[in-house]
Design goal:
about 300 residues; 2 domains; 6-stranded mixed sheet; elongated; binds adenosine-5'-triphosphate; AAA+_ATPase; ABC_transporter_ATP-binding; ATP binding
Length: about 300
């Protein structure tokens, strides 16, 4: 079996003062995947990432990065991962190109192998190569952080909330760069509050809440976990106060003179049955559309259940 890109077993962290930020988290990230780590504010995502980055000491469990144990082979572990933190961290008096060169030097990348300009081009900052970093906009700074995390060509890139405060267009650019890295074989781990983003980008999603893992599944499976489905039905005549009803319907509402919005649980009924029940009550169906549950629905129901 190929080794995982990241393997975490029973990872725990209790901060001084007693806050238990991680409580026995076990998960593994497959090589070549895009893995999403989701959770409400304060769930423990940054703590987990900071442990991998060597910025926070764990209080229990083990973590291996690209097969290297963070306790026993820290240098190899660190060389295998590039981390983009939530906070913007670089000297504002250096230019972007200097920032990348210095970082490459820090990782011992020989001058001939440095790809600073190529990295700036990839994050659309080549025209800012020689500007002071402090003059960059927030979105530009974030893209510089991504380039900085990639100077040593790590096989894993971790992004902790990389698009917080970044506008939609820049976010799209950032994600297309992240996708192209992934296509070239880089394993991606990201935390985000944008659930749609996670749904669109990630192959697999783990959710943590209060320091505990509450889900870890392929994205599709996770989305399928939402039981509520909604079907919009247009019928052939005006609806009066007597709406069709059945105990298979969780909720039924009139959304127009001839249209109905029916919510049902997919483990109790199928769309066909729901439509059959409407027809059975004397309505001919003119049009139908369905709404599939998205990650937001799953996320809310899981975090609510675990609260
Ligand atoms: N240095 C610290 N000392 C004490 N408690 C801390 C420290 N850092 C984080 N915590 C606490 O640990 C818990 C987990 O925080 P963490 O930053 O890992 O969450 P998060 O999921 O990344 O949240 P967010 O999405 O808001 O960044 C929180 O209750 C937080 O207040």
């Amino acid at each position: 079996m190929t080794q995982a890109a990241i393997e975490i077993i029973d990872l725990s962290k209790t901060y001084k003062g007693g806050k238990r930020a991680l409580d026995g988290v076990t998960l593994s990230v497959q090589r070549g995947s895009i893995f999403g780590l989701l959770g409400p504010n304060g769930a423990g995502k940054s703590t987990l990432i900071n442990i991998l980055a060597g910025l926070v000491n764990k209080t229990g469990g083990t973590a291996r990065i690209w097969g290297f144990d963070i306790d026993e082979q820290l240098r190899n572990a660190k060389n295998s991962i590039g981390i983009v933190n939530q906070e913007i961290m670089f000297d504002p008096f250096f230019t972007p190109i200097e920032t990348l060169d210095i970082q490459a030097g820090y990782y011992g990348v020989p001058k001939a192998e440095r790809r600073s300009m190529e990295l700036l081009r990839a994050v659309h900052l080549e025209d800012k190569a020689r500007a002071y970093s402090r003059t960059l906009s927030g979105g530009m700074k974030r893209r510089l952080m991504v380039a900085k995390a990639m100077v040593h060509s790590p096989p894993i890139l971790v992004l902790d909330e990389p698009t917080a405060g970044v506008d939609i267009e820049l976010r799209q650019q950032l994600w297309s760069y992240v996708r192209s890295l992934n296509e070239r074989g880089v394993t991606i781990v990201l935390t985000t509050h944008y659930l749609e983003e996670a749904e669109e980008l990630c192959d697999r999603i783990a959710i943590i809440n209060n320091g505990r893992l509450i889900a870890d599944k392929p994205t599709r499976e996770l989305v399928n976990m939402a039981q509520e489905k909604v079907v919009e039905v247009t019928v052939d005549r005006d609806l009066d106060a007597d709406l069709p009803n059945h105990d298979h319907f969780e909720k039924i509402e009139r959304s127009g003179p001839r249209s109905l919005t029916i919510t049902y649980l997919k483990n109790r009924a199928t769309a066909g049955e729901v439509l059959g029940l409407v027809q059975g009550q004397g309505f001919a169906i003119v049009d139908v559309s369905t709404h599939d549950p998205d990650l937001e629905d799953v996320f809310l129901s899981l975090t609510r259940a675990a609260a």
